[in-house]
Design brief:
Order of helices and strands: HHHHHH
Oligomer: single chain
Strand content: under 5%
Radius of gyration: 33 Å
Largest sheet: none
Number of helices: 6
Helix content: over 70%
Structural class: mainly alpha
Length: 173
């Protein structure tokens, strides 16, 4: 059985730390698709530190020839817990992003519906045609003017007036 005095513990630490760290890093780096190398290194150091902390506090009865195996198994289990936590966090984050995207899309759709209602109720037919040609059909002012038989400055005037009217209605809504 190992003795848990400070000198023995330091010897166990020094003789096993590097091997435990490399093993922890290799386990954690396999799943590091979205995490940086620095985070993997930090997680590996944390895993090894946690294992040594638990060993010191629990002081399990271990034979000297089984200490390394025990430590490696403990590191593996701790790393698996870290990976499980990362996977759970990633799943939660993905759910939140999907929810935010859905909410943003819903808000966007509501704004578009409100815009369509404002255009329909508050603009003249000429304003509606000009906006549709310019924004929906991607026509330039000149192309819009030629299509409707008016001047480009008249197109500019209608668009400026229409947008100003839409903005003022949105502000009061």
């Amino acid at each position: 059985m190992i003795n848990y005095d400070k000198k023995t513990f330091e010897q166990v630490y020094k003789s096993n730390y590097q091997q435990m760290y490399r093993f922890a890093y290799s386990l954690l780096a396999k799943d590091a698709r979205q995490r940086s190398q620095d985070l993997c290194q930090e997680d590996a150091r944390d895993a090894v530190s946690q294992v040594f902390t638990q060993l010191w506090h629990r002081k399990p009865p271990l034979k000297e020839d089984t200490v390394t195996g025990y430590l490696m198994a403990a590191v593996k289990n701790h790393c698996l817990n870290i990976l499980r936590t990362h996977q759970q966090n990633a799943a939660i984050e993905a759910d939140l992003q999907a929810e935010q995207h859905t909410q943003q899309e819903q808000e966007r759709q509501e704004l578009l519906e409100e815009l369509a209602r404002i255009i329909d109720q508050h603009l003249t037919e000429q304003d509606k045609r000009i906006l549709a040609l310019h924004y929906d059909e991607d026509m330039t002012y000149t192309e819009t003017a030629q299509s409707l038989g008016i001047s480009p400055s008249a197109v500019n005037k209608h668009i400026t007036h229409s947008l100003s009217k839409i903005r003022s209605i949105f502000k009061t809504a």
